[in-house]
Structure formats: C-alpha cells, structure tokens
Amino acid sequence: MPLATIRIDDDGKTATIGGSISDLRQITTKNGQAMAFVQVEDIVGDQIEVVVFPRVLEANSASIVKDKVVLVKGRVNSKDKAGNAMAEPKLIADTFMLLSLDEAKAYQPTGVKTSLGKPKKPSSRPPIDTPSPRQNVFTFVCKLIIQTMCCEISK
Model-level pTM? Predict the structure, then answer.
C-alpha cells in the first residue's frame, strides 16, 4: 500500500512503513540534543516526513542514512504543537531498521494491511524499472523487492 494512503484521519495509529531515505535534516533541540526530520520515499515516489526524536535518533543513528532502505515503525501524527490539524500526516518514529538485500527479500508482513482510502494522484516520476542517477544499485534492488510492503497500519 503506497504511503499516500496514510491520511490525517489515521492520527494516533501505529504504522510500519518501508522505503528509502530521500532527505535527512538534523537539528539540535533547546536541550542540546540532536533530532532529525527524515523524508521516506516508497516505490511509487510518495513521501512522508518521519520525525525522529533524540532518544530514537541516538538508538538508531546508524540506520538513518540518506539513500538507504529502511523499515520504520511509529505513530501517525496529524496535529501540530497547538493541536491543530496539519495538511499532511507525519510519522513519529519508534524504531528504524536498515534493510540489507537478504532481509528485504525475506520480508514477511506482520500486521494486517488496511486500505485507508484512495491514494493521491499517480506520481509523475519515471517508471521504477529505470533507476534515477542518485539511486545506487542496492537501493534500486531493495525498492523492487519491498514494493508490496510499502506500508502497514494497525489500529
């Protein structure tokens, strides 16, 4: 199921997503700890922002690397600090797992896949069978392998 099917109505639900890290921005909090905002992109080019708080970043820093294929488990968040609805949902990360080629091939979904409505309009990106210049072979192969497990959401 594409990342585009995660909606703001899914606020508070647990989600496990798979894809490659397309962008990574690290900041320092007021307390002097590092945290990150990570864009995860699925096989069809849909993206979701993953918020990685300091505790999770410290425990998973080796897995949070641009262009790597990861599984991320977390909670869907659709509200800002003031409690107002955001335009697009984010995922608050609990865990990151870097996927090797063998792990991606052996992946078996553990939750029940739930249809969450119609996905956004089709991506204007080139077909997946042609890797973009910034993709490395490992990322391209893993994307092909995990295309059926892009997202699982549980209640």
Answer: 0.68
HSE of 53, CA atoms in CB hemisphere, 13 A? 9
48 burial level (CB within 10 Å; 0-12, 13-18, 19+): buried
Taking only the tens place, the pLDDT of each residue in 4-36 is 889 988 999 999 898 889 999 999 999 999 999
User: CA–CA separation, 83 vs 149, rounded Å?
Assistant: 31
Structure tokens at 33: 């700890």
